[in-house]
What we know:
Blueprint: H1 3-9, H2 14-23, E1 33-35, H3 38-54, E2 70-72, H4 74-83, H5 87-124, H6 128-142
Antiparallel strand pairs: 1-2
Amino acid sequence: xxxxxxxxxxxxxxxxxxxxxxxxxxxxxxxxxxxxxxxxxxxxxxxxxxxxxxxxxxxxxxxxxxxxxxxxxxxxxxxxxxxxxxxxxxxxxxxxxxxxxxxxxxxxxxxxxxxxxxxxxxxxxxxxxxxxxxxxxxxxxxxxxxxxxxxxxxxxxxxxxx
Length: 162
């Protein structure tokens, strides 16, 4: 997550947020927090502009990236609750960690499904003709046979005709 987004969630300005992080730089190694490159920041800004345009918002001309934003990993977000001491910061850190955990669970679930699909695809490869034949027979079973003029089996009453 980017510093601007986190600052908004913690209800502080981005500058106050970044000052608190800088004062506790030792708590944020590279795998907790890193700065975006100029290219990444510009790409992020272009994405933001395109979203704003789609919402019919007028943009200021000449806007550019003034400060490269920080990006925080799950562990960096958790560390923020130790740096930002407000109750809101702790509450938001817990909620954000919950989101990261759910995200990881979803990715794990999707990974399992993809693995099973690949296994199934390997088993099925080469069996296309067999599968088509199975579908053909299933369709025949599902369509009712046409009622031909067959003779009825059984006794006939005197009042019935053939």
